[in-house]
């Protein structure tokens, strides 16, 4: 299997793993939900987990891959505020945790580029 054939499956696997994590251990995700959003953080945690699982399934299937990959790119942009909130909230935590929270911020760009690359059918950018 070539790199370009593995790339969509790897992205689908990443999204599926994250989606399952939202259901298996929702509390850490609840804490990243911006308070400006209506409803409860748990509702947003479960909704984003379900979205990640749906995106993973869509990317795994060649017939829906392009649309799902473009939706994944938009999803990665959409969850960026949660990563910003996490970095702000964790600014007084021990250095390794603070570094992890801050380190997540620039990772969104490669994820967006990777999803766009999968949508185009090209090799992964990440």
Automatic annotation (TrEMBL):
Coiled coil segments of this chain: none
Q: How does it sit in the membrane?
A: Multi-pass membrane protein
Q: Which UniProt keywords apply?
A: Membrane, Signal, Transmembrane, Transmembrane helix
Entry superkingdom: Bacteria
Signal peptide segment: 1-23
Query: Where in the cell is the protein located?
Result: Membrane
Specify where it is mainly localized. membrane
For this UniProt entry, which segments traverse the membrane? 68-88
Q: What is this protein called?
A: DoxX family membrane protein
Name its species: Streptomyces cylindrosporus
Lineage here is:
Bacteria, Bacillati, Actinomycetota, Actinomycetes, Kitasatosporales
